[in-house]
């Protein structure tokens, strides 16, 4: 068979390819590059740019096996951010290789591999399986703190108490309440631990009049209707006892009109908090979040506001990191807009400032930014640890599986209602991954949906086979997986507020098989080294099939998924470094196979489904058990 050697070239930032245990300035990293034994390469050079001047260093040949030849080179870490790429010399011309792939033309530096030295990364997230909870809709643990119908008015509507399980009524907006609280979450931790979850992400819980609580009235108090500060302390203690983490949602871009800062500023243009807002005509015309008058935007040209929110020693975002709450992370709402008001663009200034302040308080805090668009400029190691990976994972996956893009779901005139080719899905994933350092890509927050989107099962028309394909990708792709509450039991829902239905606690109404599938994947994600800290190599993307390898020093896993039968009956894996005779077992079905002629047979792959192949030797290591 004709073998394309260019497919065999691989390097990423994982431990198989980068040896730099501390990754500190002054340390020397050892870089490794894998190529096929057939590759007609005569020399390889490492290209770096220390202090702005181009430099080349030759790679030396290392070991060779039946299918692979390895090359290595040392790289002094002289800067906090070191970018590099490889130049491969052949008799037929030279090739550049960077995080975006192999190419004959000279690329820009944008997609170079990047090493971050002295970076304060949240190492715990590599072992995390997150679960997102919209507190009012998850579990009612204490009915005595529930909002009562007519207790107050919200945006000229009386608040409404709804019975648990009733479908959300859009006419009520954020004025309807179901009674979910922190006590309910604490009472359901056994359920979450059994599912395989070990980290929670809660939508806002601070004092606010709405059920969504993005209209903050006090950043220093947990709303009594979700349990108050004491309930958060109790939840923190219960999570700690189970070895589980907690991330809260902060809304620094805007507050609610009932916040004392805004009340004072509106009453008196000379009030100390008046500089926190941008009035175009005092007192009733002011900048808001997307024109929503109940959400006035905060003006970070105010140094005093920056001090109060994150920079000062007693800043709001710092206090919640301390005992007795000791939260492990912040999800920063609408991070894409933060600090940006027309010609006054303080976005990066705030990103860097928040990181400096919070990492000084707690080096392992996880800083997650909400970003529906291209967040990669904020993911270069000096701002956020991650973004909600909508563009780099979720949205193209929806398009690939459903046959139409996100805009089509909301009826936008620019919607794309044509299916996304497999090659284009992978191209988008690669583009967003290549634009950021490996350490950041490995902690990106991957999700299949959230409180701001329709639920996956609804997007896919109830097709559970496609939901299972999506779940396999969520738990095996590079990054940190998050389950949106109820997705695991088959909860459905269109756009807001339908996507915020109450959690179903009657097990008889669950999709039990789907929950079991999520449970197996969650435990696999936490137990397999290749998924926790392994590399990522694309192996195949054509027709309706995607395959990639996750590779760690301890093991290799080959993930194969397809959305429809495309006739592919064997997968090429020689370029993954798997020689003939390698014995594999599928974690999902228990099927076994042997690599022959550089291929793995796919006869057992369902028409719509997935396989997760592991080498038999590595597959049986550790605590993983195979369900047959």
User: What is the subunit arrangement here?
Assistant: single chain
Rounded to an integer in angstroms, the radius of gyration calculated over CA atoms is 25 Å
User: Low-confidence stretches at least 5 residues in length (pLDDT < 50)?
Assistant: 618-628
Stated plainly, the CATH topology of the domain at 5-116 is called Immunoglobulin-like
Strand content: 25-35%
CATH superfamily placement of the domain at 5-116 = Immunoglobulins
> Mean pLDDT across all residues, rounded?
96
The largest pleated sheet is described as: 8 strands, parallel
Strand order of the largest sheet: 28-27-24-19-16-11-30-29
CATH architecture of the domain at 5-116: Sandwich
Any chance you could write out the topology, listing elements then pairs?
Layout: E1 18-19, E2 28-36, E3 41-48, E4 55-58, E5 60-64, E6 68-76, E7 81-90, E8 93-98, E9 101-103, E10 113-116, E11 130-133, E12 153-154, E13 157-158, E14 160-161, E15 176-177, H1 182-187, H2 189-195, E16 199-202, E17 206-207, E18 218-222, H3 228-241, E19 245-250, H4 260-267, E20 279-281, E21 285-286, E22 288-289, E23 292-296, H5 303-311, H6 316-319, E24 329-332, E25 340-341, E26 344-345, H7 347-361, E27 366-369, E28 386-387, H8 390-402, H9 406-409, H10 422-434, H11 438-441, E29 445-447, H12 456-459, H13 464-476, E30 480-484, H14 512-527, H15 529-533, E31 535-542, E32 545-552, E33 555-562, E34 570-572, E35 583-586, E36 592-594, E37 599-601, E38 609-615, H16 616-619
Helix pairs in contact: 8-10, 13-14
């Amino acid at each position: 068979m004709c073998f394309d050697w260019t497919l065999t070239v691989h390097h990423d930032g994982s431990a198989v390819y980068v040896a730099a245990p501390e990754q500190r300035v002054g340390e020397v990293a050892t870089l490794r590059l894998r190529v096929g034994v057939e590759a007609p390469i005569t020399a390889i050079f490492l290209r770096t740019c220390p202090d702005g001047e181009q430099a080349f260093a030759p790679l030396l040949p290392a070991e060779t096996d039946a299918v692979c030849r390895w090359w290595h080179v040392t790289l002094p870490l002289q800067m906090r951010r070191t970018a590099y790429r490889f130049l491969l010399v052949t008799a037929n011309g030279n090739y550049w290789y960077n995080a975006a792939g192999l190419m004959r033309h000279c690329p820009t530096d944008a997609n170079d591999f990047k090493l971050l030295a002295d970076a304060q990364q949240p190492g715990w997230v590599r072992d995390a399986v997150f679960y997102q909870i919209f507190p009012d809709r998850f579990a009612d643990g204490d009915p005595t703190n529930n909002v009562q119908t007519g207790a107050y008015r919200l945006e000229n509507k009386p608040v409404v108490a709804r019975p648990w399980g009733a479908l959300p009524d859009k006419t009520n907006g954020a004025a309807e309440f179901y009674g979910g609280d922190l006590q309910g979450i604490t009472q359901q931790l056994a359920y979450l631990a059994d599912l395989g979850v070990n980290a929670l992400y809660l939508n806002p819980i601070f004092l606010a009049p709405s059920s969504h609580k993005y209209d903050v009235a006090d950043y220093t108090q947990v709303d009594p209707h979700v349990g108050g500060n004491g309930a958060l302390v109790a939840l923190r203690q219960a999570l700690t006892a189970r070895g589980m983490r907690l991330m809260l949602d902060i809304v620094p871009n805007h507050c609610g009109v009932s916040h004392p800062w805004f009340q004072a500023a509106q009453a008196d243009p000379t009030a100390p908090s008046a500089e926190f807002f941008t009035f175009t005509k005092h007192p009733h015309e002011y900048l808001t979040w997307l024109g929503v008058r109940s959400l006035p935007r905060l003006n970070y040209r105010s140094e005093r506001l920056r001090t109060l929110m994150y920079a000062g020693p007693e800043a709001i975002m710092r206090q919640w990191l301390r005992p007795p709450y000791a939260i492990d992370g912040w999800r920063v709402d609408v991070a894409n807009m933060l600090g940006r008001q027309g010609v006054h663009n303080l976005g990066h200034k705030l990103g860097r400032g928040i990181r400096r302040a919070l990492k000084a308080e707690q080096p392992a805090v996880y800083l997650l930014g909400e970003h529906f668009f291209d967040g990669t400029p904020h993911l270069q190691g000096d701002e956020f640890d991650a973004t909600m990976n909508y563009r780099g994972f979720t949205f193209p996956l929806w398009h690939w599986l459903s046959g139409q893009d996100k805009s089509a779901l909301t009826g936008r005139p620019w919607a794309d209602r044509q299916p996304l080719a497999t090659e284009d899905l992978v191209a988008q994933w690669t583009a967003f991954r290549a634009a950021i350092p490996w350490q950041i890509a490995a902690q990106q927050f991957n999700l299949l949906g959230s409180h701001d989107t329709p639920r996956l099962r609804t997007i896919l028309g109830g097709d559970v086979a496609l939901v299972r394909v999506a779940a396999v990708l969520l738990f095996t792709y590079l990054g940190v997986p998050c389950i949106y509450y109820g997705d695991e039991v088959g909860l459905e829902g269109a756009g807001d507020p339908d996507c915020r239905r109450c959690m179903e606690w009657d097990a008889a109404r669950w999709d039990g098989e789907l929950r079991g599938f999520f449970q197996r994947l969650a435990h696999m994600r936490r137990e397999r080294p290749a998924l926790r800290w392994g590399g990522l190599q694309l192996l195949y993307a054509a027709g309706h099939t995607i395959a990639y390898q996750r590779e760690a020093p301890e093991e290799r896993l080959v993930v194969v998924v397809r959305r429809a039968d495309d006739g592919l009956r064997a997968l090429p894996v020689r370029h993954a470094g798997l020689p003939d005779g390698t014995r594999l077992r599928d974690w999902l079905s228990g099927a076994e196979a042997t690599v022959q002629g550089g291929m793995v047979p796919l006869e057992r792959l369902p028409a719509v489904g997935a396989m997760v192949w592991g080498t038999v030797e590595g597959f049986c290591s550790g605590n993983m058990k195979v369900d047959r």
